Amino acid sequence: MLGEAATAILDEYCEITGLQQSAVITVLLLEDLRKRLACVRDFYEINTFTYSPASNDPPKNTAKQKPKPRKKNKTPLPEDFDPPKAICEEAGVDHEKAVRFFKAQAEAKDYRYVNWNKAFALAVNGYLVQNFPQILQTKQENEF
């Protein structure tokens, strides 16, 4: 099955090592197949497209794609932080009080955000009103 030269080499190797032919061939095959499999995986990964016949979408390449852009870095509270007054007007809270409480909270807990105005808007419509009800505007304040 192997040919005369290959059989002679295999027989001699088995005689010297005391191994059976099947054990020697299995080890050699597994080593070779592992290397070949790694190459095939790389090739397959680069050249594979996924396509579902049930879908109307065109095939998508599943090869390694460019990494997504990095997220923006979160920053500490800016020294000159002054959110738009419209945020407080919409929420019905006193702007000065809300900013003062928000800044104190952010500095005390070392909050970091990508967008401080959005963080302020969420706080004014959430935890600030719940934890500090004194920031709510009274009807008299709204009339002026």
Describe the overall structure.
It is a single chain. The protein is 56% helix and 3% strand. The protein has 144 residues and is an all-alpha fold. The chain has a two-stranded antiparallel ribbon.
Order of H and E elements? HHEEHHHHH
The main β sheet shows up as: 2 strands, antiparallel
Shape annotation: rod-shaped
The percent of residues in helical segments reads 55-70%
- State the strand order across the main sheet: 1-2
User: What structural class should be given to the helix and strand makeup?
Assistant: mainly alpha
Number of helices: 7
Instruction: Give the CA-CA distance, first to last residue.
Output: 102 Å
For the CA atoms, what is the radius of gyration? 35 Å
Write a concise synopsis of the structure shown.
With 144 residues, this protein is an all-alpha fold.
